[in-house]
Amino acid sequence: MRARGRRSVDGCVRIAALRAVSGKAPGPARYRLFCHNFVIIRSDSLSFGVSAVKQIAALPYRPAVQAGDGSVEVLLVTSRGTGRWVVPKGNLGKREEGHAAAAREALEEAGVTGVVDPASIGSYFYRKILRSGAGRRTEVLVYPLAVTTELPEWAESGERIRRWCSPEEAAGLVDEPDLGALIRSFRV
């Protein structure tokens, strides 16, 4: 491996380019590295200088009960820490497909099962607050889930409240503007 670097104003060495050659890769892989508080962070997408952590979420939906016009209702749950309205979301397990992880999170956090679409409808970003108090930029891929069963009790039923509402109402209840836009534009 070869690296070229120069010393920045704060005395931290910034690596301009790192060339990694793998016998399995068809050609050299290029990464840009940045030094942040003396920790080297690899970044494939260079927004804000730090790569985003990836999570997955389910957008549970069902036909609107009273409308009868083909519209849908979406399900929101409260977060455990702050009681904000959110979609069921979490981390991707090792060797787990995104849509399968989204279905798992919907069952654990909202007590619903159904048919999940293997294609994400989009993503949104939010700042995840860590135990240390630091914030971390997180990208969440959202998978629609057509709800077939709503359980009366589930793993986190004592810690969360669920609420069915129109996409327009749900978009107004969530704090993340990108998630609101994604919910507002959702069509079956």
Q: What's this, in brief?
A:
This protein has 188 residues and is mostly beta strands.
Any overview of this molecule?
- The chain is mainly beta.
- The protein has 2 domains: 2-46, no CATH class; 53-184, Nucleoside Triphosphate Pyrophosphohydrolase.
- It contains 3 helices and 12 strands; from the N terminus they run ββββββββαββββαα.
- It has helices at 98-110, 167-173, 177-184, and strands spanning 2-7, 13-20, 29-36, 39-43, 53-63, 72-78, 85-86, 89-90, 112-116, 122-129, 135-150, 162-165.
- Strands 5, 6, 7, 8, 9, 10, 11 and 12 form an 8-stranded mixed β-sheet that branches. A 4-stranded antiparallel β-sheet has the order 1-2-3-4, with no helix packed on it.
- A hairpin with a 6-residue loop joins strand 6 (72-78) and strand 7 (85-86).
- Helix 2 (167-173) packs antiparallel against helix 3 (177-184).
- The longest helix has 13 residues, at 98-110.
- It is globular, with a radius of gyration of 20 Å.
- The N and C termini lie far apart (49 Å).
- The relative contact order is 0.17.
- Residues 1-49 have low confidence and may be disordered.
